[in-house]
Write a structure and sequence with these properties.
Layout (H helix, E strand, L loop, with lengths): L4 E7 L4 H11 L5 E8 L5 H8 L4 E3 L8 H15 L3 E4 L8 H6 L4 E5 L11 H7 L4 E8 L9 E8 L6 H24 L3 E4 L2 E4 L2 E2 L4 E2 L3
């Protein structure tokens, strides 16, 4: 049985994953409500996308805070009032501290441009090319206190072709991302996917390996 899940989407840039979620909701493919779109960058184009669709937005510039803890505290206070079912990190380029993550345990999702646990952190496409990898990909994981280290829920790979540049891998990855995030949120909405006490259950079975996404 589907339920309307409440989402807070955090962005720092273009917001293309935000757009894919908006499109899935508007088309009736996803039973969800975006309660807020938050950015640490007031110039983020994703804020324009959100405004076009009449979504509430909030800019929380990290440069306005003395340290990471104060930024996290302000963000936590705001989100606690909204009570989202899930916090969707969609190109949010800030590391969230352990106290914030603990406050929203089992609710924070992140999409990462690699086949985790390979290539955590930044510049994943170029690093994969530099290491002559034959495959790269995209992972959606539950956020824990350690960077890009939470349980991977959904994953998809694609081949690296001769002559590929980092931009080629990014484009290929984005095409997958824009399908994967709405799909994972659909599973949460219809309760095919359940996150409980740091564990992932898919169709009532404990998920021991990432689900392999098939476009």
């Amino acid at each position: 049985m589907s339920r309307t899940i409440k989402l807070a989407v955090l962005i720092s840039g273009n917001g293309s994953n935000l757009q894919s979620i908006i499109d899935a909701i508007d088309s009736g493919q996803l039973d969800a409500e975006i309660k807020t779109v938050i950015s640490n960058n007031r110039s983020a184009h994703g804020l324009v996308r959100a405004t076009r669709h009449g979504l509430p937005t909030w800019v929380l510039e990290h440069r306005d805070f003395e340290d990471r803890d104060r930024f996290d505290d302000a963000l936590q206070h705001y989100l606690a009032a909204i009570e989202p079912d899930y916090i969707v990190l969609a190109g949010f380029m800030r590391i969230l501290g352990p106290r914030f993550i603990e406050a929203f345990a089992d609710k924070i999702l992140n999409i990462h441009p690699s086949l985790l646990p390979a290539y955590k952190g930044l510049n994943t496409h170029q690093r994969a090319l530099d290491n002559n990898e034959r495959e790269h990909g995209v992972s959606i994981h539950l956020v824990t206190a350690k960077l890009d280290d939470g349980p991977v829920i959904l994953q998809a790979g694609y081949p690296i072709k001769p002559g590929d540049k980092a931009a080629d891998l990014q484009r290929r990855g984005h095409r997958l991302e824009h399908q994967m995030y709405p799909q994972l949120l659909r599973w949460l909405s219809d309760q095919s996917l359940v996150i409980k006490a740091g564990q992932i259950f898919y169709k009532q079975a404990l998920l021991e390996n990432p689900i392999q996404f098939k476009p």
